[in-house]
Amino acid sequence: MINLGSWMNGILIGWGVDPKFANTFDEAIIAVLLLILAVGIDYLCQSIFVGSMRKLAQHTHYQWDTLLIKRKVIHNLVHTIPGILVYALLPMAFIRGKGLLAISQKICAVYIVFVLLLAINGFILVILDLYNQKQVNRNRPIKGFMQVLQVLAFFVGGIVIIGIMIGKSPTTLFAGLGASAAILMLVFKDTILGFVAGIQLSANDMLRPGDWVTVPGSNANGIVQEITLNTVKIQNFDNTISTIPPYTLVNNSFQNWRGMVESGGRRVMKSIFLDLNTITFCTPEMLDTFRKEIPLLADYKPDDGVIPTNSQIFRIYIEKYLNSLPVVNTDLDLIISQLQSTEYGVPIQIYFFSRNKVWKEYERIQSDIFDHIFAMVPKFNLKVYQYSN
Q1: pTM of this prediction?
Q2: Distance between CA 233 and CA 151 in Å, rounded?
């Protein structure tokens, strides 16, 4: 084996350096030169390999090569080359300093494992990016699963690094961890629960990014921004952010408004309370007045032998009015019903679906409709019940 330390020792003595000084620092100087060589090789390899990949990415329509650059997979893989080179050359530099050789090789080995971990982590992120680029896959997020792989990779890598530093085989350390399973379960409790909950949420299609959810018992009421291993991030409608553990959503109930968003309309269900004392049978004169003054009732004729009440005519008018509005989805349920009377009067429940599901427009539409209905109440000789002391 070539002794680089002796070679440097001879050079230093040839330059007139004191032999004691040369014997002390010759190997250290070789180590510094190896480090400088490693840095130079790293820059050279980065220029060759990363530069070539960048040029390839510019001339192809594939996404994976661009993502490999973005996530620095190639960068980190190239970083291993000088580490391996220095590791191989160290025995030639340290012939006398066995202790220094062992420490230097451990440092190199830890460095190699660490940059490999960074490359593996970047590759996992590349897979996640490629998965999320397809629109059909965005409804089934796998970020939680990828985070499990990241945790597993760094956990294994951490064990390997510890084994290198203390001079023990990683398999021995893994075997010893079996006895510490209870402690590991406690340490990684949230991670394990989040992983299992993520599988349930995804497999049962319970939650997707972009869903509007309401979580009882918390202030969460908004759009799901991100689903990770340990948290579900929800942007509330007041622009605050709520973070909830995934297992909380699995163990407890929450309301997902996705069905409403994907359906043909958003439900409106409100009641108007009529004063019981104003409900009466309609006379022929009242019916004639209704037909003349209210265009939607111009062709109304009661069934033979039936004397309708003004409340009944009012319910018929509301139904006709809602059916005439383009903002109301008449393909879905439209029900005008009288509920059980209370001390506050007779409730007329109005149930229909708005075609526009955007919150702001939805509120405006239902407000305009009920303003109109309230204004029409006196035309049927009815009064809205209003409590007063």
Answers
A1: 0.52
A2: 20
